[in-house]
Design goal:
It is built from 21 helices and ten strands. A hairpin with a 5-residue loop joins strand 7 and strand 8. Helix 19 packs parallel to helix 21. The longest helix has 24 residues.
Length: 642
């Protein structure tokens, strides 16, 4: 065994910034100086009149187009910024060492994690002393993610059931297998440092990886930033967005993605050069909602078709695009199924939050997943509106119920039975305002949307397999809305899946370019707010709405999430995150319905809403971003969470 060390320093600000320093054949790994991360601004002054929709004549360096499969990526919970991003960063670092033939020389390494609170520089000491941020990172599985990434694991393929055992083995044995092939000694207390006293300038979620040789000499060092949604950037890739974001193995990334740049740096070399007749950008680049609409008008294409054709530029065939989209939906659907069928009663963490998705689904079950519904739960009936059909369990389950006579086993009522006694009424009857008797109503859209979203986010909170859409914290909104479309609306599920995801991706690209999808930068409006906007657009597109109406649905979706703060209790992606996804899904459908019912009746464009979100994020106090600093976290843990 080679006695060696890897030190990881994490600068502890709150959850968002991993800066990646890219390394190619013609670059050396070096400590780079972080510069201010640029936020592109969309032109909100563009005229709303249809005649003002002008397609970009010359491709601007700030276009928004990235791959749909970068925006929607398969990963693990509970956080895209603190779990998926760090794991990806660790694997990228090791891949670069292997490419430069440095890995075999490594004898020690240091990992610096830089959680950024965004507060005054002198506040980090006291924060570190309380251990609040350390708990926060541990609860988000950041140490596990980094170490397993350094061992060569990938968020998309790692066996989620082995994460805990592998992490515990590293701690117990003090051995780390770099890339799965290089065995070194790793002391967690010595080699993984949480730098509360330092701040990297590029983004709140920063990491610095360093490795050392036989004599203790520094062989390589690199800084990485996790900027939300599982995206990892560094000094170079913060501009050339497609270069290293999700392509851990750069040799396997199509040349079109490697050489496409949003802003090119003079003299910057890339592993693959474009063909002589290659324009260096996708066929339909857009930098704003306004230019996207212009493209749909000029070429008579839907938004989904625009995005689809851009994906072809990235080297994907029709079959590839179809397979990838269906793979994304399969993981989303499996996540919902896992969430509603689990036997686990509570979520990880000291809140001891009870899982609700299984109970909710059993009550709503109509046979989508045969065998899950149980007969011993009260069924949701039609209340006082007999014209609305009751949502019952499968007939076989009802027949086998020990309470088939209508009783619920507690002296109550069943949907098909009669009252055995009067219901309990709260309130005084000796009052001018008489109390209301208990009654039940049923709104299937709300009930199912809520159940689906909660199921996904409970799986995420437990560290399960999910799709970042566009982040882990907001991963329940888009699957819930799409599931509802497939089960209750669509007569062509495959077509709906492709239309929904491609349309939602276009909106996500606009937010990522014009504002942020990172809660550390923009609060929860950047996660659940953006997911709601994307889902609104996808729903409207599946209903056959025009591109103008689709973007108006997206605008309504974000407009009513502006200013939404991010402050999870105890640092867990549970309260209020899980319920917030439920409400985000319901709001997305409402926004789409409203836009379709009032076509052309609006005053605010999506571009203006995105710019408003960017400004709101900039003005928002850091304690209302993903920092666990605001008053919400002061809710006593003895208060029931649900």
């Amino acid at each position: 065994m080679i006695s060696s060390t890897i030190r990881t320093a994490f600068r502890v600000r709150p959850p968002h910034f991993l800066r990646l320093v890219p390394v190619g054949r013609n670059r050396k790994i070096s400590h780079s100086v972080a510069s201010q991360y640029p936020t592109n601004t969309l032109t909100s002054s563009q005229a709303r009149d249809d005649t003002a929709l002008v397609e970009t004549e010359k491709v601007k360096p700030g276009h928004a187009v990235i791959s749909t499969f970068d925006l929607f990526s398969i990963g693990v919970g509970p956080s895209s910024s603190h779990t998926v991003g760090p794991m990806r960063a660790g694997k990228i670092f090791i891949a670069d060492l292997q490419e430069l033939q440095v890995l075999e020389k490594v004898r020690a390494s240091a990992l610096h994690l830089i959680p950024d609170s965004g507060g005054p520089h002198d506040s980090y000491g006291s924060l570190a002393a309380t251990g609040k941020y350390l708990d926060f990172r541990v609860l988000h599985h950041t140490p596990q993610a980094v170490l397993l990434g350094l061992e060569g694991s990938d968020p998309e393929t790692i066996d989620t059931g082995t994460i805990s055992s592998r992490y515990e083995a590293i701690l117990a044995n003090r051995i780390l297998h770099l890339g799965g092939i290089r065995r070194i000694t790793f002391d967690m207390d010595r080699d993984m440092l949480w730098r509360w006293d330092q701040v990297l300038k590029t983004h709140p979620n920063g990491m610095r990886f360093s490795c050392f040789g036989e004599e203790g000499e520094l062989l390589a060092t690199n800084e990485y930033y996790s900027v939300g949604g599982g995206f990892v950037v560094n000094e170079k890739t913060k501009i050339d967005e497609n270069l290293f974001y999700k392509g851990v193995d750069k040799s396997a990334v199509h040349g079109a993605r490697l050489h496409q740049t949003h802003n090119a740096i003079e003299g910057d070399q890339t592993p693959a050069q474009p063909a002589a007749n290659d324009p260096g950008h996708p066929p339909y680049p857009f930098e704003s909602g306004n230019s996207l609409l212009a493209l749909t008008r000029k070429h008579n294409l839907t938004i989904a078709q625009i995005v689809h054709d851009n994906e072809r530029y990235f080297g994907l065939s029709e079959a590839d695009i179809n397979d990838k989209l269906m793979r994304i939906w399969t993981v989303m659907d499996d996540c919902i199924r896992s969430g509603v069928s689990t036997a686990e009663k509570t979520l990880p963490g000291r809140l001891g939050l009870r899982r609700r998705a299984p109970m909710l689904y059993k009550r709503l079950m109509r046979g989508f997943y045969p065998g899950i519904a149980t007969p011993d739960l009260q069924l949701i009936g039609s209340a006082s509106t007999p014209s609305v059909a009751a949502i019952n369990a499968p007939e076989s389950d009802i027949q086998s119920s020990p309470y088939a006579n209508g009783s619920d086993g507690r002296g109550g009522v069943r949907a098909s039975g009669k009252n055995t006694h009067a219901p309990w009424v709260t309130g005084s009857f000796d009052h001018a305002i008489l109390p209301m008797p208990p009654r039940k109503t049923m709104i299937p859209a709300v009930d199912f949307l809520s159940c689906y979203a909660i199921a996904v986010n409970e799986v995420n909170a437990s560290g399960g397999r999910i799709v970042t859409s566009p982040t882990n914290g907001a991963a329940g909104v888009i699957p819930a809305v799409l599931k509802y479309i497939i089960e209750f609306i669509s007569d062509d599920p495959e077509k709906s899946i492709k239309t929904f995801l491609l349309t939602a991706a276009a909106v996500g690209m606009l937010f990522k370019r014009g504002s942020t999808i990172s809660a550390a930068e923009g609060g929860c409006q950047a996660e659940v707010g953006v997911a709601c906007s994307m889902a609104s657009a996808g729903f409207a597109a599946c209903m056959g709405a025009s591109p103008e109406t689709v973007l108006q649905a997206a605008e309504i979706g974000i407009e009513h999430n502006l200013g939404l703060t991010c402050d999870p209790i105890d640092g867990l992606v549970q309260v209020p995150c899980i319920e917030r996804n439920s409400l985000g899904a319901v709001k997305a459908v409402t926004a789409a319905q409203l836009s379709m019912a009032s076509t052309g009746v609006y005053r605010v464009t999506l571009d203006e809403a995105i710019e408003a979100m960017r400004l709101t994020a900039a003005d928002m106090s850091v304690k209302y971003k993903e920092t666990s600093l605001s008053t919400t976290v002061k809710i006593p843990l003895t208060v029931p969470a649900c």
